[in-house]
């Protein structure tokens, strides 16, 4: 028996790793090379393959429950939960405000291009930020599902994501560590400001466009 990625009989670990992290595999190269905990990489890999146990995937396995999202009344799917749910949109809009973006991503693959566009000088942080947001949303979803916790404000998820990034700063290169911590502190400060503005009814955070809308606007302007 021989392996496709090697002409040797032994299992080819290095060729398979190189294949998984090759540029041809899109977000996978960012996931496996990211300086984040292994279990977070696995979550991102499941998200990239639309394999996390959101309700739509559970229904495919003959689950007979309420298909509604735990945060709203729409059917729950990976894309909805992490990107297009009103709660997810607030979280991404808050992050967008912090980095000066004028739109938000609406699906996982697009989130990498979104990071490339708005954080072009911080490629080493793209997977860290995306992972923290996805994990924080997923953990809150599960707390609502299994523990009966009520989400009073989506910015609590932003705070959790910031705490994760700050904790993961210890996994980064020394030169990147301080930059990441400073960025997280700034994000928390802006999030608190947005929360206060929301309470006063003056926040603009919910008015950002979806990434798809922004792309459509670009295409129209070219004609």
Fold topology:
Layout: H1 13-20, H2 27-33, H3 38-48, H4 55-60, H5 78-84, H6 86-99, E1 103-104, H7 108-118, H8 126-147, H9 155-168, H10 174-200, E2 209-210, H11 211-222
Parallel strand pairs: 1-2
Helix pairs in contact: 2-3, 3-8, 5-6, 6-10, 8-9, 9-10
Secondary-structure-based class equals: mainly alpha
**Spans of at least 5 consecutive residues with low confidence:** 216-223
Number of E-state strands: 2
Taking the alpha carbons of the first and last residues, their distance comes to: 56 Å
What characterizes the major β-sheet?
A: 2 strands, parallel
- Average pLDDT works out at 85
SSE run: HHHHHHEHHHHEH
Helix content: 55-70%
Provide keyphrases for this structure.
223 residues; mainly alpha; two-stranded parallel sheet; 62% helix; globular; disordered C terminus
What would you say this structure looks like, in words?
The chain has 223 residues and is mainly alpha-helical. It folds into 2 domains: 1-26, no CATH class; 34-222, no CATH class. It is built from 11 helices and 2 strands, in the order H-H-H-H-H-H-E-H-H-H-H-E-H. Strands 1-2 form a two-stranded parallel ribbon. Helix 6 packs across helix 10 (174-200) and helix 9 runs antiparallel to helix 10 (174-200). The longest helix has 27 residues, at 174-200. The termini are far apart.
Entry summary:
This protein is mainly α.
